[in-house]
């Protein structure tokens, strides 16, 4: 990964250099990683918790087969959804700030790569921390072979994000070399 600054114009409002990494600011990459992390959490809770009902956020602690346990789990899922939406909004705000602070148009493909990396990071965190370490919940009837496979899938998602990022940065650098 080439982290050589491509553009070192000075941001007069802040007095900071407007560094870009292969056509994308570091802040924009972080922002899209945060958006991807939040998006993955939101998809997890909506699809796996509510639509498929494989588990709920706290189903490893509160049983899903009692009314009180189900209420507690659904409430926790709702709060988790709000937290993931908040994380996505923070990432969106950082992306907006990043775009406004540079004269260089942001390259889209590296940003998509950063978002995909964020997706994989959430899934990896969920499998290792929430499932294995804290035991908050286990998909598919509280256990089984899901977690090792999901860790591998999460790592593959991260690798795919890195690939998208790297191919996008090469394209951005080539376009800058052509003058457009």
From TrEMBL:
The chain crosses the membrane at residues 28-52, 78-96, 108-128, 148-165. It comes from the Archaea. Keywords: Membrane, Transmembrane, Transmembrane helix. Pfam families: DUF2243. This is Uncharacterized membrane protein.
């Amino acid at each position: 990964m080439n982290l050589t600054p491509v553009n070192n114009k000075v941001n007069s409002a802040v007095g900071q250099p407007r560094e870009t990494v292969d056509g994308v600011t570091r802040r924009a990459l972080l922002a899209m990683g945060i958006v991807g992390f939040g998006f993955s959490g939101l998809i997890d809770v909506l699809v796996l918790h509510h639509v498929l009902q494989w588990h709920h956020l706290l189903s490893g602690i509160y049983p899903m087969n009692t009314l009180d346990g189900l209420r507690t789990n659904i409430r926790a899922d709702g709060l988790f959804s709000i937290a993931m939406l908040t994380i996505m909004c923070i990432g969106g705000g950082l992306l907006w700030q990043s775009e406004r602070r540079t004269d260089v148009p942001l390259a889209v493909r590296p940003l998509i790569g950063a978002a995909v990396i964020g997706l994989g990071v959430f899934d990896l965190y969920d499998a290792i921390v929430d499932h294995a370490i804290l035991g908050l919940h286990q998909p598919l009837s509280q256990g089984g072979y899901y977690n090792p496979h999901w860790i591998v899938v999460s790592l593959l998602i991260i690798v795919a994000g890195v690939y998208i990022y790297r191919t996008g940065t090469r394209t951005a650098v080539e376009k800058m070399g052509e003058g457009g």
